[in-house]
What we know:
A hairpin with a 2-residue loop joins strand 8 (about 255) and strand 9. This protein has a four-stranded mixed sheet. The chain has a three-stranded antiparallel sheet with strand order 2-6-5. It is of the alpha+beta class. The chain has a domain at about 220-365: Butyryl-CoA Dehydrogenase, subunit A, domain 3, CATH 1.20.140.10. The chain starts with 12 loop residues before the first helix and ends in an 11-residue tail after the last helix. It has helices at about 15-30, 30-35, 45-55, 75-85, 95-105, 110-120, 205-210, 220-255, 265-295, 300-325, 340-350, 355-365; strands at about 125-130, 150-155, 160-165, 175-180, 185, 195-200, 210-215, 255, 260. The protein is about 50% helix and about 10% strand.
Amino acid sequence: MTTHAVPDLLDSEVVSDLRAAVRDLLADRCPVGAVTACYDGDRSLVAPLWRAVGVDLGLAGLLVDEDRGGHGASLREAAAVAEELAAAVAPVPFVTSAVVATTVLAHAGTSEADRLLADLAGGQVTASLVVPWTTAPEGRVPAVGARVVVRSVAGALEAHVLLVPTGAGDALELRAVPVGDGVTVEPVVSLDMTRQLADVTVDAAALAAAPVVATDARDALRAGLRAGTAVLAAEQVGLARRCLVDTVAYLQQRRQFGRVLGGFQALKHRLADVYVDVESMGAAAAFAVGTLADVDDDLEQALVTAVAAAACSDTAVRVAEEMVQLHAGLAMTWEHPAHLLLKRAKSDQLALGSPERHRAVVARLADLDPPGTRLG
């Protein structure tokens, strides 16, 4: 039986320093009020914050090879960045552009893909994979014919280039369509307005003129969606940890009946359960990210990614709900970040495949496929 080394679940010194740098930047550049303003249609925070994250810190090119102008980092570093961004509910296209689109292009293996990667590495150009945000990595990737109309696309509002799957089966291609004439990106009201979705329409002429960046795009698309799913699990860990830390801090200073609320045994038990949940999901996400970074085994990558996605999606929502409950009326105010964290957690629960779909993948890979389950 083939065995693999267990991925290191602890942060290296480099990753710890990266976390600190991102955290400090967000504390200075990403106030809660500006994030909340996204729900009122004010997206003025998005561009300058992405410039600070993607260009000033250079994180847009984190996963791009050094010979194309990037940093050549692994998915571990990307996951650490995603955790910190999620804790601040930062409205930037890191997962959609710097992880999903970048990984797709890195696996495309064409000169056009290499050129786009160099553009993405600088942070001035962002890209979005034009598939519904609910598309799971192990399922069928939706492709389009002569005219594209794709709903609920994440990252399209910030994108300069759209990566559009066309054709079907062995003829599945990926085309890079610049946002401009013949392209309509229509924002839609989303549950999480810090990662607002959009409906994308590409006319036949614009699609036909777009360069092909992958002639057999199935593996590249799966790699990008799988990387995005693992990093999304890490994002959910960041959300959950922020919820736990804020709740503990609140209960340590809020008093009721002459006592600090955190001193009540029943609340201690609830917080202990939340802590165990957060640490468990953190281990699942770190294992998935480490496996994708170090283990070149397709089935193993599929399994650990599905496990992390299924576990983290539900747990993040549960932890966010506990935050709302334990903050009581304060969490119901528009100024408090509880609603931002809960909305992102609930939105992430459906992103890149629902927990039920990921559990079906785990069941299939363990030869426990339930009757009637369809993965493709």
